[in-house]
Structures are given as C-alpha cells and as structure tokens.
Specification:
heterodimer; A: Aldehyde Oxidoreductase, domain 4; Aldehyde Oxidoreductase, domain 3; Aldehyde Oxidoreductase, domain 4; 8-stranded mixed β-sheet; 19 helices; B: alpha+beta; Ubiquitin-like (UB roll); DNA polymerase, domain 1; 5-stranded mixed β-sheet; 5 strands; globular
Chain lengths: 795, 160
C-alpha cells in the first residue's frame, strides 16, 4: 500500500489533540460575544421587578425617555404580545400586567452608553400593588393554594409530553411525569426491610465566567441578527421567532467560537429578542446587553430545588424489590425547562438499578421564585443525590458493603429496565471496580485525624440519559488545499466539542487534525443542531459529521473516477489521495481535481464544490403516558444513549466546626470511546468544581423571593485551595463501546457532576455517623446533624 | 472632562485621554481595544481581569486608570513573544488547562507573576497563588499541572 495511507501514524482518535480555539484563548486574542463591538452600537439595560408577586399599576418612563442619550424605552405594550417558552409557552418579553418574581424584566432601555442606560432605569418609576406570594413548594402544590402564580395556565400552548401537564387539582403544577412498573405495595410486602427518606437540595447558580450577553439588530429589511454567548443556536432562533412573531427565515443567530461556559444556563433565550425590539425602536441600531454578575447568576435561570421522598424495600441480601418516589420540583415563576428537567430526572434512577416494582410521581410547580432552567445533569444531580444517599442508608441498615449493594442491583448489558427500555453499552461494575482501585491505591483509611478531624470514605453511582428524539446536521467541505471545513452548529462552550468533531473528521479522511477546521456557528451558514445540551454533541454531531464525510468522499471518488478512468467503487480515499484499492500505486491527489476551465481560478472543472451534507436522527419509541414505558416496538428506546459515572471519595470532617474537606477522589466515567482523553479528563474534573461546590457550599440564600447572596463575594465558589492535591485526584476513563456512536464514542459531561455530592454525603456518614440529606452540606448543617445525633444518643 | 494619561501598555507608549473615573479594565477593553482582559464579576473577586502593573498583579476592574500615570501595564496580549507562545501559554494548551478559556488570561498573567518571583513553586504555592482566580470548568487540576510544567521548562531554559 502507498505509504501515505499508513493509518497508524495518522490515527487521531484517542490522541490529546490541542483544542482548535486554544490559541485564541491563551493569547487573549479570541473574541467572545462579550468582546464584540458594532458600529454606532447602543447599550441596553433592564429594569427588573423588586417584588415577588405584584400587579403593575403604573409605569412612568417619561423621565427616562427625556434623558440625553436614551434612544428607546420599552414596556410590555411596546413588544409583540406573544408568550415564549421551551415547550410551555408562558413568558412575555416584559412583565405583562403583573410580576411573578424578583428580577423579572419590566422595562428595557437602549442608550448611548451602559452608564446612561443604567441611569435611565433609575429614573423609571413603577407602582406596584403587592399580591400574596408563594415560595414554599408544598404550599404552592396544594389543591387550594393561597396563590395562583399563572391564572389561565390551562390555556397555555404546550408541547405534548407524557401525561397531561396541567391538573386542575394542583393549579400551580405546570409539569408532571409518572412511571408505573409492577406493584410497589406487593413489592414492599416481599421485602425484608423497608426504608423511607426525604432528600432536598438548595437552589444554585450556573455562574458561567462569561456572563450572559448579546448584540441584537432588527434591520431595515426586517431581518433580525443576533450575536450571542448562547449555547444553542437553533433553539435560540426558534425562541426569537416565537417571541417576536417573525418566521425563522428572517432570523440569523451567530455564536462566536469563544463562549465562556454555559452549563445549561445559556440554552434558552435571555435578552436577545428584547434587544431586537429595542433595536427596531431605536432606528435599527445594534443593541448590546451584558448582564451584570447579579443578573447572570440569579436572574438568568437557576438550578431547580427538588424535594425527593424515597421509600424502598430490599431483601436481606441487598436486592431491591420495590421503590416508590414522590418528587416535588420548585420550578419558580416561569416554566422554561422545568417540565423537561422533571422528565429527565424521573428516568435517571432507572438507568442505574434494577427495580422490579417502581412507582414515581414527579411534579414541577410554579412559585414566586426565580425560574429554574436546564442545569448540567438536568435534574439528575438532584435525583442521584437522593438515590445514592438512600442506597447507602439501605447498606448501613443491612450491614452491607456499599460496593456490594450496588453490584447487586446495577443494570447489565442488554437488560430491559423498569421503563421497558433496552440498556445498551452499560457500564456498571466496571466503574465500581475503577473507583475502588482508584481510592484504595492511596492505602487504608486512617479514621482518626489530628485533633477534631475524622475521616471517612464514600461512593456513589449515577446515570444520565441523553435526549431522544435527537437530530443534528453537518456540512463538510473539502477545499482546494485539501483542508476540511466542518459546518455544524454545536456550541463549543468550553467542553471542546469542535476539537472532538475535528478528530472524528481527521480520522475519517486520515489527515492530521490541523488540516480540519470548524466554521463559526451562524444559522445562515451552519445547519441545524438540536442543542448543546444533554451530553449529546459527541454522539449526535459526531455521527452527522461522519455521515457528511461519507457523502463528500462519494463525490470525490466519483469525480476522480472520471479522471483516473476507473469505477468509483474501485477507488478509495486516504490522506487526500484517491487510489485504486487493488493497485494503490495508481493514485491522484484531491487537489488535482481543482483544475478549473474557468478563468476564475482554481475551482472544480464542473464548478460547484466538494460539499457533503447529512442529518443524523435518533428516533425514540412511543412512550405510554400512563406508565412512562417504552413501547415494545423492536427498539425499546426512550433515550439516545445513557452514560454512567461513579466516584469514590475520602473526606475529613471537623467535628468542632462542621467543616468538610475533600481529601481524595477517584472519578470514573463511561465514555464509549475517548476521542480526546485530555478533554475527557477535563470534563471529569468538573466533579471538583461544580460537584464539590454543589456538595459543600453553593446555595442561594433566599428570603421572600429575594436572593441575599447575589454576587461572587457571598455566593461561595470553591477555589484551587478547596480541592485536594493533584496526586489524590484520579480520573478513570472506562471505554465500553457505544454501538451506534461515532467510532463507538458518546458524550458524558453531565453524568460527571452527579456522584460527587452523594459520595461526599456517604463519606461524611462513614466519618462521623451522621446522615445529611440536604445539599449543600455546609458546616452549619453538619453541626446541626451532630447535635441531633448527640441528643438521640442521650435519650 | 477627559484628562491626559501617559501609560505604557505591553511595551508600547500610549498617550490617552480618559475620564478621570475610568477603570483600567474599561480603558483596556473599550479604549485601547485589548479585550483579552476579561471581566467576570466587576468587584475584584474572580480574578479574570488580572493584569500586571510594573510587574505587580492588580485587579483591573478595581483600579482607576488615572492612578497609573507613567506606569507600565502588561496584559494577556503582552505575554507571548510575537506569535510565539510563552511557555505558560503553551503548557496551558498542552495540559488541557483551558476549557471555556474565560478565566485563562487572568490565570496566565497570575502564573507569570508567580514564576517571576518564585521560579520553583511547590504545588501548594501554586494553589495559593491562584486561589483568587475562579474557574468554573477545570477543577484546577490541569491548571496547576500546566503552571508546574511551565516552571520546570523555564528553569531548565534559564540554566541552559
């Protein structure tokens, strides 16, 4: 074979290829949306509600309008009278008639500078008439609640999903999911031991380092162009379309190559649509908005607080025979992603363990709190905190090893789970083996630390499903210098998806990765992608790119066949050389195809381009709304794929101060196949940033709908000093091939944050014998639990 | 009323006219067009806006530019030698210390100052030096690896 086709040297899968946009990031030269400046651009500011629930009596904008440098001031009546949402359409661009949470946009201003826009907001006077507000999820869930957050909810337009989402018996609930398997009561009778527990979590923020920001233009031709730090171009385009009541064809969304984090908090539209309306009102000038840290942290969507009641029955040997869950999700004032988070969280446990009898009811409820949105893990961080804490409690009650109880119940390859879904590419025991070895390599646990410090170890497992149906399109262009350009709309928000796609294409063409590049996301250029979310990009976009590569390869072979006087099916392509498969010495370079007969230069003789395109679609089975089960249709598929994660930790707990230190951690994830191991490890280290913060310190202090710690000085982020030394952090990539993934790969970046908090909760129990059932496990909560334990022991 | 400010930025002398209350961050980003310096919080907590003034680290979001008459500012754009990356920058890429990259400029500038004063830091000293730089993505493991690797490389280059 021709030596150029020696694939061993060029193989790029499994290599630590340096990220495509890395140079721009380390030099500071790459432009994020927040760095963009447009000619004669205006700055926007939003005047937000200071009341959790109030009627708007009057808004006086006259002083703001007459301030020099102000170009537009908008209230609800100046905006399209639409409602937008993400499947439940309940939200106006600006508060309509009443405000439902502190922080809700009420008035928008565009001015020559950010300072003038801010001053104008201060000059706006809003008269409110306070309404009773509801913050507690139980109170809101009642059949006769003291407050209805959305009157007329039953008339909202909705995407059909599972059982009916509106239930007049619970007029504040806006989303519902249920799963029914077997007979839980019969199961409890069979059990040797039954345990009940309630687990909760505080509200936390996404806190991407690049705050939410965008530039919007509603031009003279009636087209809307938006540059945004969003993580999902097409969902944003659709939401702009819904909110502004203009067709997709008039909207263009551009997302720069540099996006400073998202974590689920940049999927939905923020002020992009509103600023387009400002742009039109200000004579079609570009309007830029940069959320303040407070707006970005608190008023751009938060993580949902869950309350999870679990009752389960086990046999003496640890086999789970029955499990019942009742979950209430505090959705905040608007639906946003609430009902989808509810659905995803409902299925999460069923991907971990075998439940012969299972019953789940999960409601998401409107309150007068900030709206919850998608958050890395999509409800799975919450549900697995509950489930994994609960499994540990079962183990403790049975006197069973914490690994053994999990091994006993974890799903295996090919098994049909409690929702009737076939489990493919399952990692269970493999992950448990890895974390056990990973932690135990540091030696035996020394329980008694110095002075008040006590040590313990804990483990947790987690599952995260990736959404289906799911679709992704890609265009792959081969240029006349034999470089490959990928046009795809996957938002690279830091996870490194561009480089993953580059490695997939480079592997296909057997070229070096520096010969492949990705185009900037621009909906006028890059084709449809569902969203950067649900850990789906490697799988869905990767498959789409591979298919588009196949398509363009076919075009190349056909064109080369004419030149080489061969049949296309006799030819093959590697390293941008077309060769006769049975006689590799007969070959031509792809660049030689570009010999134009036109006078315009080096193009294809026929004109046109080498442009492959493809759409990858994952279907799902029909789901029975009564049981949540997948139909037995030969596919039995609810999700695109599932990813599993496990972590083992060692903590030190100070019994005098309640402080918890993470001392050692072993992090294992199933990735199908590691396309870029360095990137995979980077995603796994999120356990040390988001996971650890969630476990120990991050929470909004809410009081009557107001957030008391709305800044980085008081919202407690964990820093480099809070993580254990590097030698005590191990990552374990487990490669169980994903049969339908691109080169058997799949995404996994959400599952990686879920086991951290429950593993820490379990380690705290191991260290000091107290069970903390609420995240975060702050020193105050640890001390309170210790006091409670002491009181119980005395009595 | 704008006032004159003579300042050196990344080795280049600049004669600027600025508002007396202008922050160094805004002068860099909006005035001079050096957008590599990032604003994460605007209150001096997250470290994204870190630059060097006469070799000392400052938070540009809390620094009035008028205080810097005659001083020399180094931003992330001044770290590399032309198109050749500084070893810290290269190590950040090679070790996967960059994800979303928004905190990277502040971290790289901080690391540069650390290695100038302490060419052979321990892991604990690196952690201490970057404790005021928030990163939401990486968990700091690879950032610390990258800084230690760059330190080693710079030490062996100094001995060569």
């Amino acid at each position: 074979m021709h030596n150029a086709h020696d694939s061993a040297e060029l193989a790029v899968l499994g290599k630590n290829v340096i990220r495509e946009e890395g140079h721009g990031k380390v030099t500071g030269l790459g432009k994020y949306a927040i760095d963009l400046e447009m000619p004669r651009m205006l700055w926007a500011k939003i005047k937000r509600s200071t009341r959790p629930h109030a009627k708007i009596i009057n808004i006086d904008i006259s002083r703001a309008q007459s301030l020099a440098g102000v170009h537009a001031v908008l209230v609800d009546k100046d905006c399209p009278q639409t409602l937008f949402g993400f499947g439940c359409y309940d939200e106006p661009l600006l508060a309509r008639g009443k405000v439902r949470y502190i922080g809700e946009p009420v008035v928008a201003v565009a001015a020559e500078s950010e300072a003038i826009a801010e001053l104008a907001c201060d000059l706006i006077e809003i008269d409110y008439e306070d309404l009773p507000a509801v913050f507690d999820v139980h109170e809101a869930f009642r059949t006769n609640p003291p407050v209805i957050v959305h009157e007329g909810q039953e008339h909202y337009r909705r995407v059909p999903i599972g059982p009916p989402q509106y239930n007049p018996k619970h007029p504040n609930a806006f989303g519902y999911y249920r799963i029914r398997t077997g007979d839980v009561d019969a199961g409890f009778k069979e059990a040797d031991f039954v345990l009940e527990g309630t687990y909760t979590n505080a509200m936390m923020g996404h806190a991407p380092m690049e705050r939410h920001n965008s530039v919007s233009l509603w031009d003279a031709d009636g087209n809307v162009t938006v540059w945004s730090s969003s993580q999902a171009a097409y969902p944003l385009l659709n939401q702009i379309s819904e909110a502004l009541d203009i067709p997709h064809s008039r909207i263009r969304v551009i997302i720069p190559k540099y996006v400073g984090g998202g974590f689920g908090g940049k999927i939905e539209m923020k002020a992009e649509g509103l600023c387009a309306v400002l742009s039109r009102a200000a004579g079609s000038r570009h309007v830029k908005i940069v959320y303040t840290r407070e707006e970005s942290l608190c008023w751009a969507g938060v993580q949902h607080p869950f309350e999870m009641k679990i009752k389960s029955g086990v046999r003496k040997d640890g086999t789970i025979v029955s499990c019942e869950m009742f979950v209430l999700v505090n959705g905040g004032a608007y639906a946003q992603h609430g009902f989808l988070v509810t659905r995803q969280a409902s299925y999460g446990p069923l991907g971990s363990y075998r439940f012969p009898n299972f019953k789940l009811d999960n409601y998401v409820v409107y309150t007068n709190q900030p709206p919850g949105v998608a958050y890395r893990g999509f409800g799975n961080t919450q549900i697995h905190f509950a489930l994994e804490s609960h499994i540990d409690e079962l183990a403790a009650a049975l006197g069973m090893d914490t690994y053994e109880i999990r091994r006993k119940n974890v799903l295996v390859e090919g098994e049909i789970n409690a929702a009737g879904e076939v489990q493919h590419s399952v990692a269970g025991n493999e992950l448990l083996d890895e974390i056990k070895q990973g932690l135990e390599q540091h030696g035996e646990l020394v329980r008694e630390g110095e002075g008040p410090w006590r040590r313990g170890r804990g483990i947790a497992f987690a599952n995260k499903d990736s959404v289906a149906p799911s679709a992704s399109s890609a265009i792959v262009k081969v240029h006349n210098d034999e470089t490959v350009e990928i046009r795809h709309s996957a938002g690279n928000i830091g996870q490194g998806s561009s480089t993953t796609l580059i490695q997939i294409a480079a592997e296909f063409f057997k070229v070096k990765p520096d010969r492949v590049k990705t185009a900037e996301v621009d909906t006028w250029v890059t084709p449809y992608d569902q969203l950067t979310g649900s850990s789906r990009i490697t799988f869905a976009a990767g498959n789409a790119v591979l298919m588009a590569c196949e398509d363009v390869k076919g075009q190349i072979l056909k064109m080369a066949a004419e030149v080489m006087q061969a049949k296309p099916e006799e030819l093959d392509l590697a390293d941008m050389k077309v060769f006769v498969r049975d006689n590799p010495d007969r070959f031509m370079a792809v660049r030689e195809l570009f010999r134009t007969v036109f006078f315009t230069g080096s193009f294809l003789p026929t004109g046109g381009e080498l442009l492959g395109k493809a759409t990858f679609t994952v279907p799902s089975s029909k789901i029975d709304p009564e049981t949540g089960h997948a139909a037995d249709d030969g596919m039995r598929k609810i999700f695109s794929f599932c990813t599993r994660a496990a972590q083992a930790v060692e903590v030190a707990v100070n019994i005098e101060t309640g402080e918890v230190k993470l001392e050692k951690i072993a992090i294992a994830n199933d990735v199908g196949r590691a396309i870029n191991p360095m990137s995979c490890e980077g995603q796994m280290h999120a356990a040390l940033s988001m996971g650890l913060g969630q476990a120990l310190s991050e929470e909004f202090q809410l009081s009557e709908g107001s957030i008391r710690n709305a800044d980085f000085s008081s919202y407690r982020f964990l820093t480099a000093k809070d993580a254990p030394p590097n030698k005590f952090v191990t990552t374990h990539i487990v490669e169980i091939p994903q049969f339908d993934g691109p080169y058997q790969a799949k995404g996994f970046a959400e599952a990686t944050t879920s086991p951290t908090a429950p593993a820490i909760a379990n380690a705290i129990f191991d260290a000091i014998g107290v069970r903390v059932r609420h995240m975060p496990m702050t020193p105050e909560r640890i001390l309170a639990a210790l006091d409670e334990l002491k009181a119980t022991n005395k009595s | 009323m704008r006032k004159a400010l003579n300042i050196e930025i990344n080795g280049r002398k600049q004669a600027l006219e600025i508002e007396p209350n202008a922050l160094l961050l805004d002068v860099l980003r909006l005035g001079v067009g050096l957008t590599g310096t990032k604003e994460g919080c605007g209150e001096g907590v997250c470290g994204s806006c870190t630059v060097m003034v006469d070799g000392e680290l400052v938070r540009s979001c809390l620094t009035l530019a008028m205080q810097l008459e005659g001083k020399s500012v180094t931003t992330i754009e001044g770290i590399s030698n032309g198109s050749e990356l500084h070893p810290i920058q290269r190590r950040f890429l090679e070790h996967g210390a960059v994800q979303c990259g928004f905190c990277s400029p502040g971290l790289i500038v901080t690391a540069k100052a650390l290695l100038s004063s302490n060419p052979d830091p321990s892991e604990a000293e690196v952690r201490d030096a970057i404790r005021g730089n928030f990163c939401r993505c990486t968990g700091y493991v690879k950032i610390i690896e990258a800084i230690l690797a760059a330190a080693k490389e710079l030490r062996s280059a100094a001995h060569a």
